[in-house]
Structure formats: C-alpha cells, structure tokens
Amino acid sequence: MEKMKRAERMVAITQMLMSNPNVLTPLTLFAERFGTAKSTISEDLMAVKGSLLLSGQGRLETISGAAGGVRYIPEISQEEATRFLSKLAERLSEKGRILAGGFLYMTDLLYDPSILRPLGLIFASAFRKEEPEVVVTIETKGIPLALVTAEALGLPMVVIRTGNKVTEGSSVSINYVSGSSRRIQTMSLSRRALDSKRRVLVIDDFMKAGGTALGIKNLMAEFEADVVGTGVLVEAQLTLEPKLVEGYLSLLQLRELDLSGGRSSVVPDALFLKRL
Amino acid sequence: MEKMKRAERMVAITQMLMSNPNVLTPLTLFAERFGTAKSTISEDLMAVKGSLLLSGQGRLETISGAAGGVRYIPEISQEEATRFLSKLAERLSEKGRILAGGFLYMTDLLYDPSILRPLGLIFASAFRKEEPEVVVTIETKGIPLALVTAEALGLPMVVIRTGNKVTEGSSVSINYVSGSSRRIQTMSLSRRALDSKRRVLVIDDFMKAGGTALGIKNLMAEFEADVVGTGVLVEAQLTLEPKLVEGYLSLLQLRELDLSGGRSSVVPDALFLKRL
User: Fold this and answer.
1) pLDDT in tens, B156-172
2) Residue A132 and residue A153 in contact, taking contact as beta carbons nearer than 8 Å
3) Beta carbons of B144 and A139 less than 8 Å apart
4) What is the pLDDT at residue A3?
5) Are A215 and A187 in contact (CB under 8 A)?
6) How far apart are CA B189 and CA B248, in angstroms?
7) A154 at interface of B, judged by CB pairs closer than 8 A
8) What is the set of domains in chain B, with CATH numbers?
C-alpha cells in the first residue's frame, strides 16, 4: 500500500513537471502538495528521473541550493529524430507539392502541431548548448516553427514584421532582397519587442538564396543582438550558388524541383543527422 | 522490487502519453515496449488514470475495442484558469501598454509560450464539446494563440492571409472592414488549405468592432465550413455599439482605455469564468 502511494506520487510529479516544461519547481512545492517530507520527495524524484532516463523523450534536471528545484527538459532521441525527418522528407517529395513559380507547398505540414512538436524538439536539442535567450523569426509561415522551438527551450519568441506594419511605438526597419521574389522588401521590428544585446536563435521555414536570413542578421545587428544560431527547416540546394549567409543549420534539403513533371526531391541533411 | 518496476512503468507510460497528447496509443505498443502482458499494462493504466485524476491538469481517455487504446487529454482546472486569467488581466492593465492610435500592447504576452500554453488549454476546454475539426485564424498575432489551441485539441491549424499574398494555387478572397483601421481590406485562403464542410473553430487575439471576425465568417461560408465556435483573447468593450458578430467567446474584456493618462483596464469576462 505504501509502495502504491509512492507510484501515484511519482505519476503526479511527472505530470506536474511535464505540464510546465523548462520551469524550475522547488521541492517544497511538491512536499506541500503531497503532504510529505522533502526527503521523501527527493527519493520520488530520483526514481522518476531514472524512469525517464531511457526514453530519450525528456529528462529531469535538478538544481541544488536554496534557489534550486527540478525541471523537465523535453527532448527527442537521435533515433526518433532521424526517423521523423526521413518520413517528413518523403512527404515533402510527394507529387503535387510544386506550386507555380517553383515553390514547394509545405503549409499543411508547417501548421500541424503533430509535425511541429518534434521539429521544435529537434531545433531545441541542436541549439540548446548555444544558450539562446530568445527565438526570432519573420512572419508568417515561420511563426509556428519558431514557437514550438521557443517552447521546447523555455524561451520567448519575437516576430519580425514584413513591410512597415509595426504599430508598436518606434521601430527599426531595414531593406533586404528576398531570394524568392528578387525584389527589395522591408522588414521591421518594434524597439520594445527585443532588448539590446540578447543571445538570439533565428528560426525560419525555408531558405533559398539566404536573402531573408541576411536581412534578419542585419536587423539583429541594429539591436546589438548576438545571433548564436540560425536554423531552417528546408534549404533549397538547386544551384551551386553559395548562400548569402554562413553557419546556418538546415534539417532538410530540397535537391530537385522538376516543374514540368511536378516532382520534387527532399532529403534529410546528412551532416545534421550526424550532429544529432 | 516488483512494485518498483510497476512505478517505473507508470512514469514511463505517463511520459509517453504526455509527449504525444491527444494521440491514441494502442495497449499492445506499451506491452511490447515493456515486455509485459497486456493485462499488466491495463492495470498500470488504471493506476495512472487514478493518479492523474485529481490534478485537473489532464486526464487519460481509454477507448476499448480492436481500434482502441489510450490517450492523454491536457486540461486546465477551473481554479487555475481563473487565477491565470486574473493575473493576465492585471498585466494587461499595467501602465505603458497603450500605443498611439488607441491600441493595447499585447505582443510580448502573445508570443510567450508560458502564457500561451494555459490560454490554449482554456480555449480547448471551452470548445472541445463543439467537436471542431480545424482551428482557423488570421495572420499575424493570432497565430501562436491558434496553434496552442489546436495543439491542446489535437487538431491542425489554418491561417488566413491578409491581402492577396496567397501563392498556393487558387484561392478565395473576400473584402472586409477591419474595426481598427476602418478601411476596406482583403483576406485570402488557398483552396487547398481547407477541405469543404469542415467544423471550424475561429481563434483570434483581439476583437474591436468584430469586422475581422465577420470577414472570417464570410470567408468560411465560401468553404461551406460550419463555424462551431469563435474565441478571442481580448474583446474591447469601450462603447455600447454592438459587435458585428454574435455568439463569440472572449476571455478578457478591455473596459477602459485612457489615452491621455496611459491607463487601461482589462478584466476577465465574468460570464466566461462562470462557464468554465
């Protein structure tokens, strides 16, 4: 009976921690909630930690001291990430995804929480060690991807607006040449949206020539931000032309886009899979 | 020892289910993973179900039969929702949130995963019984809110574009008068983004006169969609003028906006709190 109570507590603790990922919870909170000694909670947590260890889906992080506690860090195993990206590449290579103008239709996948969740975990595990403080993206299609990444890392998100739509006080605007349209465009960010000198992770859905990524980099310089990483879901590798930015990370590569046949070829980035 | 194994399994099962909310997992998958009989897993699940019951943070739903299994439905308790909305209303009433033009600055909160997560759960619990099949929003600021709601309900999201930016094959456009600008604007949705005759839940961040919500309703009619619910985070109640739409649900109400004093007053919707 005593043992059963323990199991119940362990499940309840797991639920509390997983419902608030990345949030540090002091042990006293559990002790109060369950009416037990802190030492008992400590033992429960050790057991929970062990049980979570093998799944590859996430782990407990304990921080000792007066300001300490425990938090749940969601993760994805290398095996699951590889399998997921291969499957996603296959779906993006399906017939009928080529749009007029040579675009790849990805919106159905980019707005699907069951696809986004693992993508957020993959970006998070790739960039966690760079210790970003905020995830930055540009509207519109990159927003869900940036949000799930921010959620997996426990960070806020900042969204750059295209054009001059910012109505939020003074803003910084820069011009950039988007790879897809080859036209000069404007992107803006409200001054109050981002403090200066932040460590920034840039997330976007697609990179063609890298013009948008370069624009974001230049805009971030105006905020004295340190861009500690840039991640894109799909990178077009249709020409040998080098990109306008360096040091980014792409999960998938668009290798072929046959407009007349309506066929595309998307493959996982081999280098990235190795890094996982 | 045997008991400990059971507790470990219960934690691992909880983690697997919570990592894939709303996804039905067959019992055989657990039996294979843990090398135990299905009857043992059944007992584990009963115990897990009981442990989760009291938290109000989520529950297990079991579906029997050959195509059956178990899934985790994330939830928020009435008490937590009430406390959270009161706190959020306070933060929105802070000095310095009034922007030129009489707008309320909410972006910092709308892009913060720790704020979004409970909001998604609140919208989900309010609309789950309407059995929506897809969550619809309009760019840009409503996207994160719609996404967390979609995630909490296990549904895909669809984003309406403003203007005529749709490059995804044939699209449907309609004109609408936005309450904030009082100008005629255009919203568009690609034909392939939404199947016809879907049950649709509309989520947005702000409602002033209801012009955008009316526009979405009209656009949805073009897709023969059944709008089973409309939820907005903040509804402006600054005048006695009736809204252009009916039957929506708002979590918070903006009651006062004192431009000269830079003060606003936001309160939780009393009717909504009662319904929770």
Assistant:
1) 999 999 987 767 888 99
2) yes
3) no
4) 44
5) yes
6) 22
7) yes
8) 2-74 (1.10.10.10), 78-275 (3.40.50.2020)
